[in-house]
Design a protein that fits this description.
The protein is of the alpha/beta class and about 170 residues long. It has one domain: Rossmann fold. The protein contains 6 helices and 7 strands. The chain has a 7-stranded mixed sheet, covered by helices on one side. Strand 4, helix 6 and strand 5 form a beta-alpha-beta unit. The longest helix is centred in the middle third of the chain and has 12 residues. The chain is globular.
């Protein structure tokens, strides 16, 4: 089992300050590659309506379930590989106002993360996707994604994406 790399306190605080309380309160929050669950648990504490954790390593998923059971909120923990979890969520019509993804550093996810099937489909049109990644690793931006902010904290970066507006101009021809 690979070591987990929890989001640092500094990055966690920055994440929620940038998103702002109005984006979190009442939101459905998806925590991909959840690891310790620290980010999603913080979203619950900040008033998220629900948090869905995706963590493929079963012992970590169990630890998240235990931590969430101590507290509050509407919590779902999926112990599935991220692609399978997103397919499962899409099939059930789930959508999220905030998606946080913290894939393993140095494993090639920078080139892949935005192309994961069903990722765009489970984000609401006005939602935000945040990817935590090594500052040296750049994210390959592909449609339907638009990057709108990036902040670096030492060796860690947070990159913020939104979905590009739907283009209905083809319907007018």
């Amino acid at each position: 089992m690979r070591d987990v790399r929890p989001t640092s306190g500094r990055v966690l605080l920055a994440l929620f300050n940038i998103l702002g309380a109005e984006k979190i309160r009442g939101a459905d929050f998806l925590d991909l590659f959840a690891g310790t669950g620290r980010v999603g648990l913080s979203a619950i504490e900040r008033g998220a309506a629900s948090v869905t954790f995706v963590e493929s390593v079963r012992p970590r998923a169990s630890a998240i379930e235990r931590a969430a059971a101590e507290g509050r909120g509407n919590v779902t923990v999926l112990s599935l590989e991220v692609r399978r979890a997103l397919a499962w969520l899409a099939k059930r019509g789930r959508s999220f106002g905030v998606i946080f993804a913290d894939p393993p550093y140095g494993a090639g996810w920078g080139a892949e993360v935005l192309a994961i099937p069903n990722l765009a489909g489970v984000l609401t049109q006005s939602g935000v996707l945040v990817v935590e990644h090594a500052a040296v690793e750049k994210i390959a931006v592909t449609p339907p994604w638009a990057e709108y902010d990036e902040r670096s904290y030492g060796r860690t970066s947070l990159t913020f994406f939104k979905k590009m507006p739907l283009d209905n101009s083809a319907d007018l021809e």
